[in-house]
Amino acid sequence: MKNLLNLKIESIGTNGEGIAKNGADTCFVPFCLPGEQITAKPTYTKGKIVNAQLVKVTKSVNGRTKPKCKVFGNCGGCQLQHMAYDMQLDFKRNLVKNNLKKLGGVEVDVLPTEPSAKTYGYRNKVQMPFGKKDGKTVMGFYKPSSHEMVVTDSCVLQEDWADKLCNLAKQFADDNNLSVYNEKTKQGLLRHLVARYVDGQLLATIVINGDKLDGWQAFAHTLAQNFDHFGLFINVNKKHTNVILGDKTIWLAGIKHIDGECCGVRFNLQPNSFFQVNDDIRDKIYNQAISLVDTNDCDIIVDAFSGIGIMSGVLAKTGLPTFGIEIVPQAVEDADKLKQINNLDNLTNICGDVNIQLKKLCDKYQKVALVVDPPRKGLDKQTKDTILQAKPKSVVYVSCNSATLARDIKDLSQLYDVTYCKPYDMFPMTNNVETLVKLARKV
Ligand SMILES: C[S@@+](CC[C@H](N)C(=O)[O-])C[C@H]1O[C@@H](n2cnc3c(N)ncnc32)[C@H](O)[C@@H]1O
Predict the structure, then answer these.
(1) Least enclosed by CB within 10 Å: which of 262, 273, 297, 311?
(2) Atom of ligand 1 at shortest distance to CA of 400?
(3) What pLDDT was estimated at residue 148?
(4) What is the SS3 assignment for 97?
(5) How does pLDDT run across 93-137, given as a tens digit for each residue?
(6) Ligand 1 centroid vs 349 CA: distance in angstroms?
(7) Of the residues 228, 256, 284, which one is the last residue of a structural domain?
(8) In terms of domains, do 44 and 132 share one?
(9) Does the pLDDT at position 145 exceed 80?
(10) How many domains does the chain have?
(11) Whether pLDDT at 245 is above 60
């Protein structure tokens, strides 16, 4: 094969890929470990940057691990199955440390990454597109940065319930001759299967490019035979975009929500509400985040980006007036149910935008104890301006993107120091990491 490169991997990049020098060029090769000697095939070159595909590991190092998944390397879901788990934890700790330094301008003592109890089979959520192959319904994941489906019958990040559900859904589609949505022609019915399985309860949503799912009663019957507690929904998405869920979700059969318990509060979870994907790490990060909140000398506690309200529910148990702010109405319905079933009269769930609602609360109350848990894009300028004006004594920040976390820390650094920083491995085998940070006011 022509143009092959023989490289020695020197370090790991932010996406978990190997980095090597080839003369003046810097080469990025996924699925390699530092110290390994490899052969790679260039796939893209721009200036002195070369992206290459691993062809062969000619000399390996300790830590190379056999991936569990047959489509690892093809499917875009996992980046680190070839890496021993303790190396993954170190990689994530260094990633957070480097992002905070390079993007945040702060040198922070980052605690070791909290490991996940399960390194495979940890996800309580499945989200897979439907496809067709040789006339049969298939499911899979998209290749990195593409819309080309890698077909698979099984994902090792989920437990058996997910494989079973996907197989039943494919069979149902074939038995009923249901068409599959085609992104190019924009025709076809079935788009995605989205499901959650928590505490033995399944919520399955079939996302369709249409208004009805003919024959759903048969699918409900099959689910009832295979799962003790299930709820079946359709979600209508006729928009031709990448967004998976449309605005309308319709309950068809079974339970309407999951009824669970976490950190001592009972919760309610509907299909469209956000929920952390790894139950073990979720509990660990919530417990630690809550313990970091300064409730000693405050008028109110605010949980901004509160989802279904577990953290605000636990914080409300202090007896202090507690506010959750969440933009998705269904999640706020869940949070109101949580308030009711846990008898938390001092908890107020606000349905609205943190950028607006946090300022209103800070204008009204002087001493605010604040937790923020934003989506990947981090905090907007408006929210950071509110924090800088209101000057809460501390801010506990739960982040799922250490790059935007670092940017936000930088923007708040005139008033705040990082006094606690610990990564949590919410997403083993992938290059994603959850980070818990406490920011303490300087004066
Ligand atoms: C990372 S999740 C965290 C949710 C919750 N803290 C938890 O642990 O389950 C972020 C949440 O913020 C909500 N959200 C996103 N943008 C928002 C905004 N501008 N204002 C209020 N909530 C928002 C999302 O709907 C989602 O529930």
Answers:
(1) 297
(2) 1
(3) 85
(4) helix
(5) 999 999 999 999 999 999 999 999 999 999 999 999 999 999 999
(6) 13
(7) 256
(8) no
(9) no
(10) 3
(11) yes
- SS3 category, 351: strand
- Is residue 343 located within the same domain as residue 385? yes
Q: Say if 79 falls within a structural domain.
A: no
Answer whether residue 167 is part of any domain. yes
Pocket test for ligand 1, best of 276, 323, 327, 356 (most atoms within 8 A of CB): 327
d(CA 341, CA 136): 45
Torsion of CA 197, 202, 203, 209, to 10 degrees: 90
Domain-located, residue 86: no
Q: Which residues line ligand 1 (CB under 6 A)?
A: 274-276, 305-307, 311, 325-328, 331, 353-355, 373-375, 400
Closest atom of ligand 1 relative to the 303 alpha carbon: 6
205 vs 262: CA distance, rounded Å: 23
The per-residue pLDDT for range 44-68, each reduced to its tens digit, is 999 999 999 999 999 999 999 999 9
Distance, CA of 32 to CA of 82 (rounded, Å): 8
Ligand 1: nearest atom to the Cα of 275: 9
Residues tagged active-site? 400
Atom 11 (ligand 1) nearest CA? 305
Pocket test for ligand 1, best of 274, 279, 355, 402 (most atoms within 8 A of CB): 274
At 328, which CATH number?
A: 3.40.50.150
Same domain, 286 and 346: yes
pLDDT, average across residues 179-198: 96
Residues 134 and 112 in one domain: no
Mutate to test the pocket of ligand 1, among 310, 326, 330 (most ligand atoms within 8 A of CB): 326
Task: Report the pLDDT value the prediction gives residue 119, as an integer from 0 to 100.
Answer: 98
**Cα dihedral sign, 75-162-216-174:** positive
DSSP secondary structure letter of residue 115: P
Range of the domain at 156: 125-256
Residue 7, amino acid: L
Supply the CATH number for residue 212's domain: 2.40.50.1070
- Cβ neighbour number for residue 73 with a 10 Å cutoff: 17
pTM of the model: 0.96
